[in-house]
Amino acid sequence: MNKQKLSFLEIWNMSFGFLGIQFGMALTGGFMSRIFQTLGAEIDDIPILWVAAPLTGLIVQPIIGYMSDRTWSPRWGRRRPYFLIGAILSSITLLIMPHSPTLWIAAGFLWILDASINISMEPFRALVADKLPDSQRSYGFVMQTLIIGVGTWVASSLPWMVSQFGVSDAAASGVVPMSVKVAFAIGALVFLVSIFYTVFTTKEYPPEDMEAFEKEKAKKNRFVSDIVENIGNMPSTMKRLGVVQFFSWFAFFTMWSMANPALTEHVFQTPAPIEASFDMANIVQKEAFNVANTAFQKSSNLVGSSMGIYGLSSMVFALLLVLYTAKRRINRKFVHMVSLILGGLGFISMYYASPETLKYSFVLIGFAWGSILSMPYAMLSSSVDPKKMGVFMGIFNMFIVIPQIIAALGGINFVTGLIGEKAINAMLVAGLSLIIAGLCNFLITDKNAITYQTEEN
C-alpha cells in the first residue's frame, strides 16, 4: 500500500494519546517506590515489588499485538479499540492505587496498572508503522517521544506542584500523603482524555486485502505457534537491537525502582525513617518519626521533580529531531549510540550531585530516554514485515521486559552489591549498563535500518 505523507497535525493527533500513557508510567516510575517505602518496604525488597511491571508486559504485549493485527472495525479501526480499553482500566487503577492500605495491595495494583497500560501502549507503536510511509517513521516515533517528554516532565512534578497549592505532604505512618493521591487522580483524568482525543481524531487504513484478511482471521487461532514461529524468524537486525535494548532497559528499570531511595538518602540526606526504630508510644519519639517522615516525603517530591527534567530534556531532544527529520535523513545508529552514552554519564554523575546540581544529571539521562523511545522502533520498523507489525512490536517488547525481570529478581541487588552497600551504587550500575548499551550499537549493520534510503535520497 502506498501511504501518503501525513501533516504535522495528523501525526500529532495520532500520537497525543501517549501523553496519558506517559502520565501513568511517569507517576508509577517516579512515585511507586515512594509508596512502597511509605507502606513499610525495605530498600532491598523494592526491586522484587516492581517485578509486576515487566512480567505483565512480557505476557500482555505479544497477545495484544497479535490480536490487534487480526482486528478490524469500520468504525473503530484496528488499534483504537485497545487504546480505549487500556485507558479505562488504567485510569480506574491510577485513581485507587495511592489509597492502598498495605504493601501487597499496592504491589497488586501495580500488576493491574501495568497490564492496562500495556493494552494501550503496544498498539500505539504499531499505529505509527501502520499509518506512516517508511520515510516518515523516524519523524513519527520522534513525535511520540516529544509528547512522552511533556508527559514525563509534568507528571513527575505533579506531587510537588499540588503541594505548592497547599495540599499536604504530611501523613500518618503507613499512609500515602494527600499530595500523591491528588497527583494520581489528575493523572487518571489526563490518561482518559488524551486517549479519547486520539481515538476521535485519527482514522486507520483498512487491511490492504480485506478478503485475505477475513480468511486469515477465520482460521483456527494459532496464537502460541504463531508467536513461536515469529520469534524463530526474527530478522537479524531485531536480534541485534535486542542486545542494545537489554542493557538500556536494565538501566532505566534500575532508575525507576531505586532512584527515590538512592537520592533521598545520598543527595538529600533524608532517608525513609524505619518505624521500628522509634518508640511510637513515646510522644517525643513519635514526633521525631513524623518530622523525619515529612522530610522524606518532601525530598521525594523534589526527587520526582528532578526526574521530570529527563522528560523535559527528552522533549527538547525530540523537538530537535522532529525539525531535522522532517526534511533530512539521520544516522539512527549514531544518534542512539551517543545519546545512550550521555545518559550513562548522567547516572554516574549522581554520585557527586547536590540537590542543586541533580537536575543536570537528569538532563543527560533525558537524551538517552528520548532516543530509546524513538530510534530502536524506527530501525525495527524498517526491517520487519508490515503485515506483522503488531506482533513483532509485541515480541520486541521481550527485549524490554526480560532485562527488567532479571533486574527485579535480584539482578540489581547482586550487581550493586559488587560495588558496595549504599543505595546510590544502583545509579552507578545504571550508568555503566547504559554505556554498554550505547557501545552495542556497533552490532547494527543493516543500512536500511540505520538510515532509511529513498529514491530521492
Q: Care to describe what's here?
A:
The chain has 19 helices and no strands. The protein has 457 residues and is mostly helical. It is globular and about 75 Å long. The C terminus is likely disordered.
Key attributes of the depicted protein:
457 residues, mainly alpha, Growth Hormone, Chain: A, 19 helices, disordered C terminus, MFS, transmembrane helix, membrane
What is the average of the pLDDT values? 84
Percentage of residues in helical conformation:
over 70%
Describe the sheet with the most strands. none
Global geometry: globular
Could you name the CATH topology? Growth Hormone, Chain: A
* Total discrete domains: 1
InterPro entries: MFS, MFS_trans_sf
Pfam families: MFS_1
Subcellular location: Membrane
Protein name: MFS transporter
Topology:
Layout: H1 8-15, H2 18-38, H3 46-49, H4 52-69, H5 80-96, H6 103-131, H7 137-164, H8 178-201, H9 210-218, H10 223-232, H11 236-266, H12 283-325, H13 332-349, H14 358-372, H15 375-381, H16 389-396, H17 398-419, H18 425-439, H19 447-450
Helix pairs in contact: 1-8, 2-6, 2-7, 2-8, 2-11, 2-12, 4-6, 4-16, 4-17, 5-6, 5-8, 6-16, 7-8, 7-12, 7-15, 11-12, 11-17, 11-18, 12-14, 13-14, 13-15, 13-18, 17-18
